[in-house]
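Tokens in:
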């Protein structure tokens, strides 16, 4: 019986610590102590130029996710995103809820979407939702099981000649990137972001994208 009595107390403590961790992380973001991972802004700009739909799907709370994106990417880019967070769904990742909500509310075809994740839990969530997923490993998640990923890379890369591009993502779903921003893009991209994980340059750095997170990407028809 002792464990049954203490369990609610432990759960409350876990929630308290998680909120505290998020507060500390957001303070570091606001102070610009944590940069985006290589290639994130480049791929997002490619998607925006092509008219691709973007969303951030995170296990964190909506306020923290929006603050993260607006601070690291700027208001102009952030305005192009739809936000879906852990406090908006019944079940968090690895359950597919947050991705299914994004697809449903944005009116997307799952077969025309690509998720960009950074962890095994995020990958499982995308797979459970029936969406193709590319994983950008971090030093925190490098040893995790990424079975089922459509592609696994260390980072998106700042150089489009050697890194992942919007064309790369479109290729995962058999699509092509429109030659211009005019007209409806053949693919809709959902950018997924995992729980905020700072990309510190330490033995264990990394981070979503978005961002990551987290960032996922998906293209509309």
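Residues out:
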């Amino acid at each position: 019986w002792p464990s049954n009595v203490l369990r609610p107390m432990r759960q409350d403590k876990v929630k308290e610590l998680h909120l505290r961790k998020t507060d500390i992380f957001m303070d570091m973001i606001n102070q610009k102590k944590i940069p985006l991972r290589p290639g994130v802004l480049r791929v997002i700009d490619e998607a925006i130029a092509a008219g691709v739909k973007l969303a951030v799907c995170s296990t964190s709370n909506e306020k923290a996710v929006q603050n993260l994106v607006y601070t690291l990417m700027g208001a102009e880019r952030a305005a192009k995103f739809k936000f879906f967070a852990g406090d908006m769904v019944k079940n968090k990742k690895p359950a597919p809820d947050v991705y299914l909500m994004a697809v449903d509310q944005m009116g997307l075809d799952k077969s025309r979407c690509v998720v960009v994740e950074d962890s095994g839990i995020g990958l499982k969530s995308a797979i459970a939702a029936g969406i193709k997923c590319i994983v950008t490993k971090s030093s925190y998640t490098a040893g995790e099981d990424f079975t089922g990923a459509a592609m696994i890379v260390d980072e998106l890369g700042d150089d489009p000649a050697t890194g992942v591009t919007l064309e790369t993502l479109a290729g995962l779903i058999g699509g092509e990137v429109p030659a211009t921003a005019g007209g409806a893009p053949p693919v809709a991209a959902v950018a997924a972001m995992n729980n905020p994980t700072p990309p510190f340059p330490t033995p264990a750095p990394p981070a979503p994208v978005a961002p990551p997170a987290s960032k996922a990407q998906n293209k509309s028809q």
